Amino acid sequence: MTYQSQIRETATLIREQSGAWDGIDPQAVARMVLQNRFRTGLDIARHTATIMRADMAAYDADPAAYTQSLGCWHGFIGQQKLIAIKKHFGSTKGKYLYLSGWMIAALRSEFGPLPDQSMHEKTSVPALIAELYTFLKQADARELGMMFRELDEARATGDTARERTLIDAIDTYETHVVPIIADIDAGFGNAEATYLLAKKMIEAGACALQIENQVSDEKQCGHQDGKVTVPHEDFLAKIRACRYAFLEMGVLDGIIVARTDSLGAGLTKQIAYSREAGDLGDQYNAFLDCEEVADLSSLRGDVVIERDGKLMRPRRLASNLFQFKAGSGADRCVLDGITSLRNGADLLWIETEKPHIEQIASMVDRIREAVPNAKLVYNNSPSFNWTLNFRQQVYDAWAKDGRDVSAYERGALMSVIYDTTDLAAEADERIRCFQKEASARAGIFHHLITLPTYHTAALSTDNLARDYFGEAGMLGYVAGVQRKEIREGIACVRHQNMSGSDIGDDHKDYFAGEAALKAGGVHNTMNQFA
Q: Is residue 221 flagged as an active site residue?
């Protein structure tokens, strides 16, 4: 509904009240309605699922149309990210939010900072989704509110051309609300627990749920040791639980991202149930590291399985976990990916130990032999030392090509002494092009950084503390923060406006008219930043 049609419809409604609503301004109502386009989280989930599905189709047609996101741990961070995207690029197209379980554990738990092991409160996940969208909706309300004020000014000065331009901009306004890929860890329990949490996350606005094939009560960060996977049937039950949740909540095109940690997981908590040779359970068990049982008297509470007509004992650790064959991780990832996509998942996530395009592509190529349109979400993780990894990749490529690398020590390539070298320059160029080239070669539809705003908060705070508490004193803040905000057009320099003060003044004007006591008068110090 356009701005003008909303005004007309509201005016009709007011007239039907026989004078009781004559104190209501239809234009004010129209503005408030447009400022609150999404009434519920489910409205958001349905809207953003449609966007994400369209983006997936666009990527299938052209791998250059990949999408991106940054992990955000607070609604304000997500809001500022989307405001910055609209400012710099004019549109939010292809730009999402990522909600990281790691950052919820580290920053949002009432227990204090926790490792990424599913120990935080599960309710903190939908709570952060709701918070992110509250802040994004407020960004809409703020920006539209400024447009309405400009419209009033254009009308007051008789600038009809400007008035028409602004009304068109209001009618075609692009929201800050974008898809969120939300981390549900390993489901926080059994399939029923997964379903219940998935519903809450979808109700809060999530259109895409990312679930991993680790054991819930043994869950580890994807870049730490000690990861334990579950048999496929267990994981598929949780994928189905997520799909049931989407369908029940009316988000019929919700997206499920199936993550496999098998590349770095050398353990399983249980042996898969197998009904017949070659079934999923049998394929899972084929990766177990086993030894033949030659002497039955050697068995002491052991589990044994049959393999090729022989009695085999899977290697079991003191932790009561079973060990996979060394070097089987990539093969297990391929089986995981094919199985997930054939059983309801929409996208894959393969957790790797380094950012190497050919390593990722080698697995995706095999998956695509079975599922040709397989697509990945890829974690461009801060757990990788990107500088060292890519300098070593260049070093290895040069050495393979017979180039002289005698001026470089491979294990010390992170050193500042190499920062201005040709090798470092080529490595940086590879990093710059990594996402584009990985999307073209390795089937990556979506690139995300899980924890960037955790690190940017630490870095910016360190810089301010160093300068403010040092010789620079107040200049540390003024030159390092405020002046940069002004020069670079950071909207938050007018922090009262960003917090909603002007929105509140507009509402006071609607509610009380000339009697309104507003904050934005001539004595408001924010006028210094006009």
A: yes
